[in-house]
UniProtKB/TrEMBL annotation:
Chain ranges passing through the membrane: 12-32, 52-77, 98-116, 136-158, 179-202
NCBIfam families: sdhC_b558_fam
Species per Swiss-Prot/TrEMBL record: Salinicoccus roseus
Keyword Transmembrane attributed: yes
Domain of life: Bacteria
Keywords, ordered alphabetically: Heme, Iron, Membrane, Metal-binding, Transmembrane, Transmembrane helix
Cellular compartments per GO CC: membrane
Protein name: Succinate dehydrogenase
Matching SUPFAM superfamilies: Fumarate reductase respiratory complex transmembrane subunits
């Protein structure tokens, strides 16, 4: 396999992991958090259920953390080596390309901190429950950080979904790509609303 073919294969894998499993996990995670809008008890029950799944540590390591590390680290490499054309060709898609890279860096930092504040703390005897998240986001600075992080992560997923459809050959025509732009725009708005509504429920 040539260097060019190898690079293309890695980019396809990077794109795939951004949707499956990471995109699926993102939506599932936000939906679990959204149970906080019903009640503290509802969130604690949902969190306990997820935490007690069979082989949960194995699932987290191989389905979430390893894909996140690969997708994040390779994504940062792309972000800092990509050639941007916004200054010369200020088209909608060029701006989306730039924002995809910026949102990816923000999302990677946000996820790393979020994992430390929640999952890593479990190993130090903390319990992932409503009070844990409440203690974090009642600090206005952390609340703003979480809102920015959620929006950046959801945007990165939604726009990455558009790229995934192109990279994997599902949308090749201009019309199909334009339609997909509208679809992913709706995904961004809906999932962002769910995420922000969820985080505000912890205040």
């Amino acid at each position: 396999m040539s260097k060019q073919d190898s690079s293309f294969a890695i980019r396809r894998l990077h794109s795939l992991l951004g949707v499956i499993p990471l995109g699926v996990f993102l939506i599932q995670h936000l939906l679990v958090n959204h149970t906080a809008t019903r009640s503290e008890e509802a969130f604690n029950a949902a969190s306990e259920f997820m935490g007690n799944l069979p082989f949960v540590l194995f699932l987290e390591i191989f389905i979430i953390y390893i894909p996140i590390l690969f997708h994040g680290i390779y994504g940062i490499y792309i972000a800092f080596t990509a050639k941007y054309n916004v200054g010369h060709y200020s088209t909608y898609r060029n701006w989306m390309f730039l924002l995809q890279r910026i949102s990816g860096v923000i999302a990677f930092i946000f996820i790393a901190i979020h994992v430390y504040q929640t999952r890593v703390q479990v190993f130090f005897g903390e319990e992932v429950n409503f009070d844990m998240v409440h203690q974090i986001v009642t600090n206005p600075a952390w609340l703003v950080f979480y809102i920015i992080g959620i929006i950046a992560t959801v945007y990165h997923f939604a726009n990455g979904l558009w790229s995934f459809m192109v990279t994997w050959g599902f949308t090749q025509s201009d019309k199909s790509q334009r339609v997909m732009s509208y679809v992913t725009g709706v995904v961004f708005v809906v999932v962002s609303f769910i995420g922000i509504q969820a985080i505000l429920a912890f205040i």
